Amino acid sequence: xxxxxxxxxAAKVNLHLGVGRPRADGFxxxxxxxxxxxxxxxxxxxTRDRWSVDLVCEDDIDRDAFPTGEDxxxxxxxxxxxxxxxxSRAAELVVRKSIPIAGGLAGGSADAAATLVALDRLWDLxxxxxxxxxxAAQLGSDVPFALVGGTALGVGRGEVVSPLxxxxxxxxxxxxxxxxxxTPAVYRHFDELCPAAELVTVPDELLTALxxxxxxxxxxxxxxxxxxxxxxxxxxxGELIEAGERAGALRGIVSGSGPTCxxxxxxxxxxxxxxxxxxxxxxxxxxxxxxxxxxxHVVEYS
Length: 302
Ligand code: C5P
Hints:
By secondary structure, this protein is of the alpha+beta class. It folds into two domains: 4-165, Ribosomal Protein S5, domain 2 (2-Layer Sandwich); 170-291, Alpha-Beta Plaits (2-Layer Sandwich). It contains ten helices and twelve strands. A hairpin with a 4-residue loop joins strand 5 (151-155) and strand 6. The chain is globular, with a radius of gyration of 19 Å. It binds cytidine-5'-monophosphate.
């Protein structure tokens, strides 16, 4: 029987997402604070003669939005790691997905990070942390954070990550949308709406709020420059945010480039009540998640 390794990686929310005008390479300079959520995908890697990718998920995940061929980010991650080490190997990659696709929760980035760690362990490559982060950055702006996890500052195009201390538990209600939003399309619309955007760096208020277990303090410091853009493309997101706040959430925000909305709540009881109200209002999928959780890690060897 061939060996397998299963690795878990978490979804993320941006507690602050400051976005500037595009750079010469087309990417936008970011000043962001990421936090992982207890909503995760698992990737199982098994050595094979050729690359393959399979999806295992519930019906609420949009299967058609998941590329099953060579262009899937997990295969690109595997190929990049093999090339880095100059080895000619391949694997079957099975993605057990709970993170909505194209939801602004960095699900694809989580899968890429999980694949890097899974194949590194499976093939005993002993890639250094620095090299793993550099390969992750080539795959996508959010992939280095998915490796690190917890709560972290992100600069550059989001790929330069440094951990931040956040010892409090944050309770979130997560409301995915039925259909995703394309990240490049949201950034393009940002350029149309905010052609003179100035990058807003992470304010001290947010860093102070992270040291405070009172979620009301953190709620007041949340900011996402892509939120008005996502709401302009999907006006119903604005109504959803109002509904969640009326139901008792401290603050509702669009996650990253959207369209998933997240609601920060004072405690677990409040999060459960907000979830029930939004389910009763007809939202098909409403989850309760906590943050932060650990970065990409092995959950099973077989
Ligand atoms: O880095 P990643 O591949 O995840 O980015 C996806 C797309 O999002 C990019 O092709 C770009 O259009 C946009 N993006 C951006 N600026 C960033 C991050 C992403 O414009 N800092």
